[in-house]
């Protein structure tokens, strides 16, 4: 039986979310990302792309290429709500799905042709997502992940394509190698230097030559160019760590500022743990100095999701780590060795009032946003809130989007 793999890709996802919130942005060149000189482009509209702007481009260059673009810092929490909404729709409908990223999904539809017709079912799902979320989405349908992903890219904007079984190689042949997964700028420049720019050229090359050029990755890429990919759709990835990092617009030695941001990060991540019904036993603090040297330190602790314990550990790590007295360029906090479980009450330290306060604060954050309530010492930090990494279901989507 031939496999049937669907790849769904939300078009210019961050841009589409911003335009839902502010329709006045429709039709305008829009760039989302870090707004400082050190920032990079996270996403951009097709209007901005026409001027040569692309994702991961330095923001400074993007402004030069498209000076009249509307630039927005972006709100990961807001985008996360729409990502979760689309995920819920897919979860309700799909027999087996994989969330590959914020805005990309794979669905294994093998065998469904006997009951519904895969393309017909995928089209109906796409229409439902567009209706209930208001977001444009494209899909590609084929026998494997690679061809489906590439075809979804060819279907954009807001379209759909099916590559019939047996036509995978012919479909890929005329495309640029840049459109293939695994081919980044460095790999493409290497191959282009040899006169290899299109998939059809790789299709004609011996696999051994690709292996000599790129090692094991060369073999994998050669197979993908032939339309061969047996990678399964994986329904669930156990997350082993969560973290937040902040790169400063200007290097700083302000200990009050650093302390405030550190505490805000530790507090926010603790909230994410509790929301995901997780516990951690390892806290990691990372610093990058102005001279670009990066250092980190970790501490093992009893499994917990308690603010007090995690904040105290993070502060202790920072104090022992920051010993050069140079300006700091980046600071980050990470919790690892995650396991399932709820917060265990410490009978020597946790009072009923403390537990009730913690639960009340989490309830407020879930309803009004992660920055709705925080410790006073962390009030000076902004934008620390992050998307729920455990695919929770934060509220906030307008009611008419759920209908």
Tell me what you see in this structure.
39% of the residues lie in helices and 20% in strands. It is an alpha+beta fold and 403 residues long. It has 3 domains: 1-165, Reverse transcriptase/Diguanylate cyclase domain (Alpha-Beta Plaits, 2-Layer Sandwich), CATH 3.30.70.270; 170-225, DNA polymerase, domain 1, CATH 1.10.150.20; 241-378, DNA polymerase, Y-family, little finger domain (Dna Ligase, domain 1). The strands form 3 sheets. A 5-stranded mixed β-sheet has the order 5-6-1-7-8. Strands 9, 10, 11, 12 and 13 form a 5-stranded antiparallel β-sheet that branches. The protein has a 3-stranded mixed β-sheet with strand order 3-2-4. Mean pLDDT is 85; it is low at 343-351 and 391-403.
Note the main sheet: 5 strands, mixed
| Lateral strand order in the biggest sheet | 5-6-1-7-8
User: Approximately what portion of the residues adopt beta-strand conformation?
Assistant: 15-25%
Q: What portion of residues is helical?
A: 25-40%
Coarse shape:
globular
- N-to-C CA distance: 37 Å
Tell me how many strands there are: 13
Site (Substrate discrimination): 14
Catalytic activity: DNA(n) + a 2'-deoxyribonucleoside 5'-triphosphate = DNA(n+1) + diphosphate
Subunit structure: Monomer.
GO molecular function: DNA-directed DNA polymerase activity
């Amino acid at each position: 039986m031939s496999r049937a793999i669907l790849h769904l890709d939300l078009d210019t996802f961050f841009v589409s979310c911003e335009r839902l919130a502010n329709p006045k942005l429709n039709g305008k060149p829009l760039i989302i990302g870090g707004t400082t000189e050190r920032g990079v482009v996270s996403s951009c509209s097709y209007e901005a792309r026409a001027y040569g702007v692309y994702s991961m481009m330095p923001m400074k260059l993007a402004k030069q290429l498209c000076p009249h673009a509307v630039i927005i810092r972006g709100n990961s929490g807001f985008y996360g709500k729409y990502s979760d909404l689309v995920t819920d729709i897919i979860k309700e409908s799909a027999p087996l799905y994989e969330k590959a990223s914020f805005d990309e999904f794979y669905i294994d539809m093998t065998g469904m042709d006997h009951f519904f017709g895969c393309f017909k079912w995928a089209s109906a799902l796409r229409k439902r997502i567009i209706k209930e979320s208001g977001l444009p989405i494209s899909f590609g349908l084929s026998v494997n992940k690679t061809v489906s992903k590439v075809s979804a890219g060819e279907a954009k904007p807001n379209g759909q394509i099916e590559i019939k079984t047996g036509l995978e190689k012919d479909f890929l042949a005329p495309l640029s190698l840049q459109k293939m997964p695994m081919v980044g700028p460095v790999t493409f420049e290497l191959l282009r230097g040899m006169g290899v720019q299109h998939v059809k050229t790789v299709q004609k090359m011996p696999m051994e030559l690709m292996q000599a050029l790129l090692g094991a990755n060369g073999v994998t890429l050669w197979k993908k160019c032939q339309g061969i990919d047996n990678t399964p759709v994986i329904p669930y990835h156990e997350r082993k760590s969560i973290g937040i990092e902040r790169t400063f617009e200007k290097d700083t030695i302000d200990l009050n500022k650093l302390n405030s941001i550190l505490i805000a990060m530790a507090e926010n991540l603790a909230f994410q743990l509790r929301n995901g019904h997780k516990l951690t036993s390892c806290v990691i603090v990372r610093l990058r100095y102005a001279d670009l040297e990066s250092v980190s330190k970790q501490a093992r602790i009893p499994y917990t999701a308690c603010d007090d314990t995690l904040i105290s550990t993070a502060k202790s790590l920072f104090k022992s780590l920051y010993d050069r007295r140079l300006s700091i360029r980046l600071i980050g906090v990470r919790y690892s060795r995650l396991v399932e479980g709820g917060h265990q009450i410490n009978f020597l330290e946790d009072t009923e009032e403390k537990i009730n306060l913690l639960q009340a604060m989490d309830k407020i954050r879930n309803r009004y946003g992660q920055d709705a309530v925080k410790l006073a010492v962390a009030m000076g930090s902004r934008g620390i809130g992050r998307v729920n990494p455990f695919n929770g279901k934060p509220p906030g989507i307008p009611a008419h989007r759920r209908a």
